[in-house]
């Protein structure tokens, strides 16, 4: 496998690059030579005024056009969460020579998991309530309750994440469009390249069975955290970084 110090970081459903919290700084300390590029999905973060696509391949096309690393023509690795990881799989499938390795955290596919595993039923009502009340505090608190388990980490990151959500609020229509894109996504029969799967047995948003099913399909043994929530980079950034080696 080629070596590179270039990393593209992709967030997931309704989350912008600011929702990585302190993780990018921790990553820079862990990999001092790393060049880190964070790209917002269309409709998220600083691109919240744009309309989100309805299919994963459309995200790939859009985000490749945003990437400076792609323009430079040098290989890179991708670290991605949830919907971002689905985009990373499609990206690698379409451009295998560019993506040296894809690190996928807590993702899923319609071809390997039922919808009630991909978005677990206890989260439906809180999600509806969250979007019925366009209040940034309720929005961020609800998301963190669904996606994180470590109360200390949650409290530490909350002010920063709330500030970002206030600056770049999500449009409900875009969240729906992203959900549609995610619901349609199907992984290829074989891994499109070198894949590192990560998940957590403590994930209450997306069942850990989704990561295990992906691993079974591709013949890859996933790294599974014992306790973190869906947003493993928020709950345990050190664990994620150690599993990038």
Question: Which terms would index this structure?
Answer:
6 strands, Rossmann fold, alpha/beta, 13% strand, 245 residues, 6-stranded parallel beta sheet, globular
How are the SSEs placed, and which strands pair?
Elements: E1 6-10, H1 23-30, E2 35-39, H2 56-66, H3 68-72, E3 76-81, H4 83-94, E4 99-105, H5 115-118, H6 124-132, H7 136-147, H8 151-167, H9 172-184, E5 195-200, H10 208-218, E6 223-225, H11 232-235, H12 237-242
Parallel strand pairs: 1-2, 1-3, 3-4, 4-5, 5-6
What report would you give on this structure?
By secondary structure, the chain is of the alpha/beta class. The protein has one domain (about 5-240): Rossmann fold (3-Layer(aba) Sandwich), CATH 3.40.50.1820. The chain has twelve helices and six strands. The chain has helices at about 25-30, 55-65, 70, 85-95, 115-120, 125-130, 135-145, 150-165, 170-185, 210-220, 230-235, 235-240; strands at about 5-10, 35-40, 75-80, 100-105, 195-200, 225. Strands 2-1-3-4-5-6 form a six-stranded parallel sheet, covered by helices on one side. α2 packs across α4 (about 85-95) and α7 (about 135-145) packs antiparallel against α8. The longest helix has 17 residues, at about 150-165. The radius of gyration is 16 Å and the shape is globular. The model has no long low-confidence stretch (mean pLDDT about 95).
